[in-house]
Amino acid sequence: MGLDFTHTDAHWSYTGFGRFRQALALHEGFELKTMVGYGGDREWSTVDTPLKPLLDHSDCDGELTPEDCATVAPRLREVVDFLWPADTSTWQLNPEACINRQNGLLLADGMDNAAQSGEHLEFC
């Protein structure tokens, strides 16, 4: 059980995906728990990041448009490379880092695939 997507083999547990998005948001300068939809009252219009369509989204259903995918994918790769570098020497101490890096890059690739084919990336 967990979260899958069309156009990619990326897969997270719901808890793992939540922590992944929390890390992305912190890197972009805000905490998800302060945002509308996450228990806070901060409006999404106050956030300026290409990752907004991914972060301001249900974690269990729905879809991202091809345009959203084209916007999110490049920034997602940048943040994943920064937060979870390819240096595998630390992954034994933090296996979630390995999962986040691999799935984050797979998700970005899936977003590229969806955008190039003009199709929505579905959360399933």
Write the layout of secondary structure elements.
Layout: E1 3-4, E2 11-12, H1 14-27, H2 52-55, E3 63-64, H3 66-83, H4 95-117, E4 121-122
Antiparallel strand pairs: 1-2, 3-4
Helix pairs in contact: 3-4
Q: Give the biggest beta sheet.
A: 2 strands, antiparallel
Report the C-alpha radius of gyration, rounded: 14 Å
- By secondary-structure content and strand pairing, the structural class works out as mainly alpha
Low-confidence stretches: none
Q: Please tell me the total number of domains.
A: 1
Helix % is: 40-55%
| Residue-averaged pLDDT | 93
Order of strands in the sheet with the most strands? 1-2
Classify the beta-strand content into a percent band: 5-15%
Global shape: globular
Order of helices and strands: EEHHEHHE
Number of distinct helices? 4
Strand element count: 4
Q: Kindly report how far apart the N and C termini lie.
A: 11 Å
Written account of the structure:
- The chain has one domain (about 5-120).
- About 50% of the residues lie in helices and about 5% in strands.
- It has helices at about 15-25, 50-55, 65-85, 95-115; strands at about 5, 10, 65, 120.
- α3 runs antiparallel to α4.
- The longest helix is centred in the last third of the chain and has 23 residues, at about 95-115.
- The chain is globular and about 40 Å long.
- The protein starts with a strand and ends with a strand.
- The relative contact order is 0.22.
